[in-house]
Write a structure and sequence with these properties.
By secondary structure, the protein is an all-alpha fold. Among the domains are: 40 residues, no CATH class; 171 residues, no CATH class. The longest helix is centred in the first third of the chain and has 25 residues.
Length: 383
């Protein structure tokens, strides 16, 4: 249980005891069950304590590094590694265990860097970080400590970003997928949005996954896959990612309503385009009409359907109009499913975008506002 929730629960238990609703023995049993004695201090203090200690240790060793014999270097770092491993196994209290978990990651990083230096393996910092992340990941499976996984994920993400664009480490996908499995635990929930963005980034930039060069339109391609994956997560009803998915779709629609330079899928072959259609066709088959229609319309737009009827220089205006209409109905849907604040954000943003960036002349723009007003009034009456 998250430490903040434990604090609330502990307060409530104390109130029940003071009111005489539970006996002292029952109160103590409940406190023992939730291990309140282990969470008396703010857990993050021990983590940051380990960070300060680790950096201090690195600076101290670096100060005398040239004067320390190679054998002594190995013995010092290896002894600290064993010490940190012993602390992780020996201490059951989370405060102490978290301290040694963070210390272990830094010491392990230092050991791998030392080995690389001694055996002239090159100065590839990104590979060093990825390698350390994999070693720590195996430690996570042994300890089942969420902080260990967070460390490995952070190091892997840092190594992945440092290597890009010269190298592309496909092994980072394993960390992305593992976080989808483990994020149900409270300490990992704040990483959902980052993991979601990393997955989209991986799909767009992977040199072999789609075998298509998105460099010329990277931002639009990233936005398309962000919304497409959000559709899939919402269709599959992945509850932990619903808020992230709803917000992602809203953001993409608003951006495309402001600047529609999409048609990401127009250069794909017939088979890949059909595969993009397939989830929404399945939705229609299972009578999920809203998602089926929305997905098909969105995918058809990104295939450049309007270019069959318009010249290239005339495509941008209908694209903005298309996404403005789509955003309007998306805002209505958000209100219907109880996402009130997000729906309000969408409507206010759409008003601002279409007022600042008028479509056509003043008369046409005013007509668009009138039409949107009538549509919203119609749905207001239907409730």
């Amino acid at each position: 249980m998250h430490f903040s929730k434990k604090k609330i629960l502990k307060t409530e238990i104390e109130k029940l005891f003071q009111l005489g609703l539970i006996r002292l023995e029952e109160k103590e049993k409940i406190e023992d069950y939730y291990h309140f004695d282990e969470e008396n201090h703010f857990p993050l203090f021990s983590i940051f304590s380990a960070l300060f200690f680790s950096f201090g240790l690195l600076i101290l060793i670096a100060f005398n590094w040239e004067n320390i014999p190679k054998l002594s270097r190995v013995l010092i770092l290896f002894s600290f590694l064993l010490f940190s491993q012993w602390g992780i196994v020996y201490f059951k209290n989370k405060i102490y265990q978290n301290f040694f978990v963070v210390l272990n990651a830094f010491v392990l990083l230092g050991n791998l860097a030392l080995i690389s230096q001694m055996y002239h393996l090159g100065e590839n910092a990104s590979l060093l970080l990825i390698s350390t992340a994999w070693v720590i990941l195996f430690l996570f499976f042994a300890l089942k400590n969420n902080l260990v996984f967070l460390e490995s994920y952070f190091l892997a993400a840092l190594g992945f970003l440092m290597a890009f664009p010269n190298d592309f480490y496909h092994s980072f996908l394993c960390f992305i997928l593992l976080l989808f499995l483990f994020e149900k635990n409270n300490p990992l929930s704040f990483l959902r949005i980052f993991n979601f963005l990393f997955l989209c980034f991986y799909i767009v930039k992977s040199p072999c996954l789609l075998n298509f060069d998105f460099n010329a339109h990277f931002f639009n391609a990233f936005l398309f896959f962000l919304s497409y994956l959000s559709f899939l997560f919402l269709i599959w009803n992945i509850k932990n990612y619903k808020t992230c998915a709803y917000f992602s779709v809203s953001l993409v629609f608003l951006i495309f309503a402001l600047e529609s330079n999409g048609n990401i899928l127009k250069d794909f072959g017939a088979l890949p385009q059909f595969l993009f259609f397939l989830p929404f066709l399945i939705c229609l088959f299972y009578q999920k009409i809203f998602w089926g229609v929305l997905g098909l319309v969105f995918t058809l737009k990104e295939m450049g359907l309007e270019e069959f009827f318009l010249e290239n220089n005339e495509v941008i205006l209908p694209g903005k109009l298309f996404y403005s209409i789509l955003t309007l109905f998306w805002g209505i849907y958000l209100m219907k499913v109880g996402r009130k604040f997000l729906s309000i954000f969408v409507f206010f943003s759409l008003i601002f975008i279409r007022y600042v960036d008028l479509l056509g002349d003043y008369f046409g723009a005013s007509c668009l506002f009138f039409i949107f007003a009538f549509v919203l009034f119609y749905f207001a009456k239907r409730k």
